[in-house]
Amino acid sequence: MKNFLIAFSVMVAGVAVAQDAPVTVGNTYVELGTTFENETTVAIGTGVGSGAVSAYGELSGSTDGNFQARAYTDAEFSKFVITPGVNYRWGADGGDLVGFGDNNEWGDVTADLEVAFRPGIIGGEYAFANTGVGLVGWSFEWDGGEVGAGYKLDIAENVYLDGRITWGYDEQFEGTSRNFVAGFGLKF
């Protein structure tokens, strides 16, 4: 497994270098979304990119009182996009932004991986599967994930709509929920 991870890392780095593309800074975006179940989300992010590889930072929050800081990257390989990320969550479901001090506790640290397929037959359609692990004490615990499909429609050069349906599963591969999510985004 260790050799596979090393080979995969070298491959991703090789694709980034082989692109010989200039580095782009300022892939900034703002997205407003809803789950159609009395929950609205807002996400603000920015990133840098070179060729087929990009890195982003994102801060998001929802009307249910939960917040997340996320660092992630994505790499495109033809019609596939691989997106690993690291997250820090806090808010109503538990945890504070900073865990130091009386009556404060740290939020949740998680890592996730999403693989998406974007065939481009009629435009912005995509299908994806993701999974995540949480850091519990000094060990990792698998959190389950989601599978789903969606469509991203570019209305203008820097305006888009994104809709998706997801089915969640837990660590025992049992279904947990089905969600419809829609978002409106601006890119700068």
Describe this structure in words.
The protein has a ten-stranded antiparallel barrel with strand order 2-3-4-5-6-7-8-9-10-11. The chain has one helix at 2-18, and strands spanning 23-25, 29-34, 40-50, 53-62, 66-77, 80-91, 108-117, 125-136, 139-156, 159-169, 175-187. The chain is mainly beta. Helices cover 9% and strands 63% of the residues. The protein starts with a helix and ends with a strand.
What's the helix and strand layout?
Blueprint: H1 2-18, E1 23-25, E2 29-34, E3 40-50, E4 53-62, E5 66-77, E6 80-91, E7 108-117, E8 125-136, E9 139-156, E10 159-169, E11 175-187
Antiparallel strand pairs: 1-3, 2-3, 2-11, 3-4, 4-5, 5-6, 6-7, 7-8, 8-9, 9-10, 10-11
